[in-house]
Write a structure and sequence with these properties.
Helix content: over 70%
Radius of gyration: 36 Å
Number of helices: 4
Order of helices and strands: HHHH
Structural class: mainly alpha
Largest sheet: none
Strand content: under 5%
Length: 118
């Protein structure tokens, strides 16, 4: 009889622990679902599944898509290229401006000398 009570007690404790663990798991799953995490992960995994040429690093693929996905990353890359192009143009314009200022000084100096002579 003593063994039977211990066995039932042990089974009850294990069952309660399992239910608590299951309850926490279910609560966490509901939280992820409510926050849209499960939908987003599913969409990203579907994108990976449908990718004709699988990426070398699947984890990088997931990270890239978690941080906004490839359309935004393409936009970011386009903006980076545009920024670099504009910086190069700016440097060119600044250089041209300096050159033109120097030429203007060359022409203004003789004109000022002529005025001084008159």
């Amino acid at each position: 009889q003593h063994y039977f009570i211990q066995s039932n007690l042990r089974d009850s404790i294990m069952s309660a622990t399992y239910k608590t663990s299951e309850s926490k798991r279910e609560e966490f799953r509901k939280y992820l679902e409510k926050e849209g995490v499960l939908d987003n992960l599913t969409k990203i995994l579907v994108c990976l599944y449908e990718e004709p040429e699988k990426p070398v690093n699947a984890l990088d693929f997931l990270k890239q898509h978690l941080h906004g996905g490839s359309p935004e990353s393409n936009d970011v890359e386009t903006l980076r290229l545009e920024l670099q192009e504009l910086r190069t143009k700016h440097e060119t314009v600044v250089s041209e401006n300096e050159t033109l200022k120097a030429k203007l000084q060359e022409y203004e100096a003789p004109a000022e000398e002529k005025e001084a002579e008159s």
